[in-house]
Amino acid sequence: MASSDAGTSLGSKYEVFLSFRGPDTRAGFTDFLFHSLTDAGICVFRDDEELRVGEKIDESLLQAIDNSKIYIPIFSRTYATSKWCLRELTQIVASTFKSEDAWREALMKVGAIKGWEVKKYKGHGELIKLVLEEVMKKLKTKHRLVTEHFVGMDDQVEEISKLLDINTGGVRLVKIYGMGGSGKTTLAKVVFNLFSSCFGKCCCFLEDVRVKSSRINGLVDLQKKLLSEIGHRAGTRSIDEIDYGAKSIGEALCNKKVFIVFDDVDNNEQVEKLVGKTTFYSGSRIFITTRNKDVLRINRPNYQILDYEMKMMSIDHALELLGRHAFDRDSPPDDYKDLVRQIVYATGRLPLALELIGSFLYHKPQDSWKETLDKLRRAPHEDIFGKLKISYDALTSEQQQIFLDIACFFIGEDKMNAIYMWKDCEFFPNTGLDVLISMSLIKIVENNKFWMHDQLRDFGREIVRQENPTNPNEQSRIWNWEEFLEATRTNKSHLQMNQKVQALSVDISSRSSRDVIIQSKEIERFEHLRFLKLARLTIVANATNHLPRLRWISLSHTARIYKWTNMYLKNVVILEFSKLGYIDDSRLENIIKEIQLDGLQLPHLQELLVLNCVLLERLKLSSMRKLKDVKVEICLKLVEIQFSVVFESLEALSITGCKSFKRLVCEIANEVNSCEGRLIFLSRVLDKLRTLTLRRCPEILDIRVVGTSESWEHFGLEDCHYVPSLGGLSNLKNLKSLSIQKCSRLRVIEGVDELEFLDHLALSMCESLERSIDVSTTKLPNDCHLYIHNCKKLRGFQEGFDGSVQSKVNLNNSLSFSFRFS
């Protein structure tokens, strides 16, 4: 096995490249290895030289090899008789030879590398397990992201390593305890990264257990993640309650040597529910971080339970950490040294405080340092709140609002919805987020989601609580359901107006939703409300004009919403419905079949999300001329979407998993929508549309674009099995990407040849597709990239390119082309 740095590039697609001789190993060892790697979440390029056309190895295959991180050639009896295997091998050893004997040199180089001999092992399973462990070690697939300014933990890492002692038998449970912000999570991540590869796929790092377990189904979600991480993805589907999840985990872990980290645990129940009464396999290690010293005081006589108290950072390391954040160097300039040392003492050498203060003082003059030092000295050493507040006080009022919103509501949420709201509130979110990131108060992590240190989250929520510790009516944000009920029912007889509360996010999880019925007038009293998120309760809405500042409404798991008509929500920019259901109550209508948004006045709405509303049959839209994004997902009974206005601003429309959907009704052009299953997209109605995505909508029978569009750039169609043709694409003058997958009856794609600006065309698993491009007349650009996978009737169509194809590769019924049409 060889590895390469090429795969770390942004263009990398594959992690492992398998080179093998098909007749020798395709159905045996190679297949077992391939599935073991993919089951572990590794992206594998499995090549098969027998499916190739032509003699010359092409650029696409070379790129696949160069962009892979690890190469595994599987030498078998006839491997060396295949010219394709030898050509791949030549490229794998990263040599560019001009002589015809290049492969001989490649074989010599590979022969010098120590490999595995199958015959020396009892069976394929034993060897494949070793290969998998080695691959995971090299790829670092489960490694956790550690701060780039990692300082002063080497000694503690060594001490923890000795406590874990992974090379011995038995079962060990190791606990790190210490105050928030002292570096426990960072230390746990480093240790996990150090040893996770020794456990193969049987390792898992569960972050933020304290907060996640307090959410609705939080412990169940953590149980599912644990099972999924250790390779039991299939078993997670049936888990819907905690005790069953604990039982499933016990059954899954009893015969595996595992390494599991539970980060930020605050009680023994969380540990018990996540590992149950598991009898761990010898060699297993459970690692816990907590602020509570009493956690893990449990009776497990056969296990070693070991405690480790987090140590205070040394003066030298604290100086180094502060220097890196404030000056981008390990030591400060000479004229700052005394100030830096005093700041270190004033922060109590707490890593989180040093990081925040250093980021806040980044390249600031000495006067700012002296002023900050004075503020720090006023806060006692143990007063973390006072230290963190220095950074908070340096923010503008708009930036403070953004920080508090994230701390209270948006950790782990996509940033874009919040940005819509903040922008409409004139909080200047792009600048504000840049400031929060530069001051180390937040991070944007994978999938554009917000991340915040748990200590900062608690700090932000404490700021809100201190606005009035005894009266939630006088706090700017409410996220606790008991405080919510207290606030909405206070002075109910007079329904006094409230100008304090800006945001409400409440999930009535611990009681039946039918017990909580909210009248719209109970919420209307919060006249400064801009964010409203309610779950698992009944809402009775009626005419309202008293929420002029409301920007975002999110309703989920809601038993019933009715009497929507005549509501005027003039400033709402985001409207979200998720998992709307029904209740069995004769006093109320018991089924939601229709969301009639045409009765609502939503002139500023920008984003509409309708998710998992399984009983919804119709969605009616109007009075939304500023609507930019519509997303409808898993509404199983949704038949039609109706709209009665030209959408002047709509940029993205996504419909996914709506298996009954078959009508898109435009009242201003209803003559073209008479046939069920036939979707007509009128460019004059969808004037600014840039992206259309249709997935898993089997009732759609035909799709056609009518009228020229200059704005449409992306078109995705997936799992729409009964669509025979896709027409009118020539009207999409600026289309850049077209992706069509799993449309088994699609035969014709009309107009692709006319797409002069198409960058990317992907056709996958369209078994009936016979023709898409006429090379002799096409207007596709020179650098257009085409990927074809499992389109059987297109098998021979590459022969018609007459040398115009710059490169082509055939892999497992797949064709990948890079065109040069000039």
Key words describing this protein structure:
single chain; 822 residues; Rossmann fold; 15-stranded mixed beta sheet; globular; disordered C terminus; WH_DNA-bd_sf
Structure description:
By secondary structure, this protein is an alpha/beta fold. Among the domains are: 137 residues, Toll/interleukin-1 receptor homology (TIR) domain (Rossmann fold), CATH 3.40.50; 167 residues, 3-Layer(aba) Sandwich (Rossmann fold); 79 residues; 63 residues; 108 residues. The chain is 28% helix and 20% strand. The protein has 23 helices and 37 strands. A 15-stranded mixed β-sheet has the order 12-13-15-17-19-21-23-25-28-30-32-34-35-37-36. α12 links the parallel β7 and β8.
In short:
This protein is an alpha/beta fold and 822 residues long.
The count of β-strands is 37
CATH topology of the domain at 143-309: Rossmann fold
Q: Which range does the strand content fall in?
A: 15-25%
The rounded distance between the terminal residues' Cα atoms is 41 Å
Assigned CATH class of the domain at 143-309: Alpha Beta
For the record, what is the CATH homologous superfamily label of the domain at 143-309?
A: P-loop containing nucleotide triphosphate hydrolases
Mean pLDDT: 79
Helix and strand composition category: alpha/beta
Strand order of the largest sheet: 12-13-15-17-19-21-23-25-28-30-32-34-35-37-36
- Percentage of residues assigned to helices: 25-40%
Q: Total helix count?
A: 23
* Rg value: 30 Å
